[in-house]
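Hi team, as promised in this morning's meeting, here are the two structures we talked about. I've kept the exact order from the run log so nobody has to guess. The first one is mostly here for context; it's the second one we should focus on when we meet again. Sequence first, then the predicted structure tokens.
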Amino acid sequence: MSRRRRYLTALGLLMGALLGIAFFQRWVPLALELASGVPSPAIRVQHKNDTHFSSSPKSWWTSPRSHLAATDADGSKLPVCPEDSPHILGPLNINLTLVISLKDVIFAYPNVRTGGHFRPADCEARQHIAIIIPFRRRELHLTIWLFYMHQFMQRQQADYGVYVIEQFGNTTFNRAKLMNVGFAEALKEYDYNCFVFSDIDIIPMDDRNYYRCYNNPRHMANAVDKFKFKLLYNNLFGGVTAFSKTQFEKVNGFSNAFWGWGGEDDEMFSRVVAAGMRVERPNSVLARSKMIPHHRDPGNESNKNNAVIMLHARANMKRDGLNSLNYKVVNITRHHLYTLVSVDIGKPEDN
């Protein structure tokens, strides 16, 4: 063998070894974390405007409702998933200092279909769940949420889709109206019968806290670390809530009148009671959640007018909500891990 050939062979072996080491250091810790639910200290993140993978609106579900009947490879109907998933881990170690790029998260979930939809392959899920996230300029938090929540929902054997509802422009933020938009837009794509409305900064610490719908509207995040895992007051109904389609229509959705921070959750609590239902909560051990630390976003300042609107929840419920919702869809982009719906919801003076 010539000296040149020996040199090239040695160089090839060296490059192969280096690539193997790089693969091990980057992807094995991620795989271990996905398997265990415990963040690995070997994972370090960056978030540099990562490229989002998108596709055409009809990328995988030309006829969304054709996917309702879950079938096996041979065409036979799958059994219904058990009430309690066999994949549940229980308490989870959530690391909010985790730094991971969106590309890494995409790599970790090849089984998620474009648009952020997943359903179990071995059984038919009991509910079709749309997760609705009101959003504006919180990309880093979104990456962390996607990393933890896709594995969380998959361990619960959920048939779910993730919808990030982004308020277009720089007008005052309206979280409640964005959630109404998410409800309306998700129903255009799939026969969802359960809706989980989640803030982008809440990560559950126990996967026995099933993100699904119950006999009454459910408050999922009633034990958050920021508040020392205590329920601050009985009417608190924020962070993460779940409504069946029927329940949400019964209260006419959220009020569209809450511009700026505060009040829409308490007003929704009053709507639930006025509609003859009650708010359910998991026990405070299962409901333990972490909140990603952050400062209040510009354009979401506290609004003193919201306190006045709260007082008239019962009177306003029939005329302010889903039946008075108006908005303009600016763009819909189906990323690999979620569907981004950018909407113009107007401004406060339009009310």
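And here is the second protein, the one for discussion:
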Amino acid sequence: MYGIGTGIGNSCFYGNGVVMIGSYFKRIRTVANGVALSGASVGTFVIPPLMEFLLQTYGLPGTYLILGGLYLTIAVCGALYRPLTFYASERQGGENGEKHKLVKKDMNEYFTSTGSLVMGSMESFSKIVQADESKKLSNSITIKICGKAIVIPKIFHFSVLKMPEVVFYTIFSFLVFFGYFNFIILMPLDADSKGFASYEKAWLVSCAGIGDLIGRVVVGIVGDLRIIERYKIIGATCICCGINILIFNFATVFWWCAIHTTLYGFFGGAYVALNSIVLIDMVGLEIMPKAIGVILLIQGLGAAIGQPVEGAIKGASGSFSLLNYINSSLMIIGGFFMFLYPFVRDHAKKSKDKNDAEQEEEEA
């Protein structure tokens, strides 16, 4: 029950949070999103030593109680969110015609602006249009109970898997997240097998948090400069992160392991910061909310299945070395896989052009 409740809670606040923050800011959107994303990195740095202190001072029940209180603060923060139309209506004093014009203008400026650490590119946002009624209906399911129609919003839109870009990105996410997530979960146990003290294991996780914070900020700035396409950046960071996990396998002393956990955090933070951006670049913001739900579902299966599978491998082999080889290999394979995106993009464009041509012939 703990795993189910925590998983549902975590899935609710991250994606919604970055979207809302991105919609509130224009001129300082990069700074705002950078600060919002850095919270997870700061938490990764601060929480492990704090957990050690809480466990020694209050025991496991007291520690869970305090952590539960910290999590409840997220509900307070979430309650402060308001849709963009809320502020637009205040500025317009209730004049509906002018309000809708302002909202449309604000959204167009937001979608076509650059300088966003989280959200996406000008090319992606320029594709966004307001959904018509038929699209709104496709986002919900209508059922009848006792003769009364009840509209239920769809949670997962599996129809997006018809798009080659979504299938491609789903495969990439599964491979990379399997290696990225399972390494940090099992790393403290690996450090324990190398004879590190309890506080040293906590500081290794904190080092990953420091690197994660730096990686998210740096890659956000570099990605917005548009010197290199962002799918290439995320592919390269995944390859580097996989190589770093491989080298970590040979580290035997604390300072050596600390260097590699910091580098793991740096490259992993870059991957996380670019994750939603690259998806938006591929499919546009209109499709992204539908696509990311399906992608995160399949990606999460990798994390859920990976831990018991890797636990069984550890039990059979008696060593964490094989697990590090698996995690590093998957990240490297996923990183190189991302560089195949131009072929997928060209194939999708040709298919779209062909379908458009056939549709025009039928109409003619």
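Starting points for discussion:
The CA atoms of residues 70 and 252 lie 35 Å apart.
Confidence is low (pLDDT under 50) at residues 97-137.
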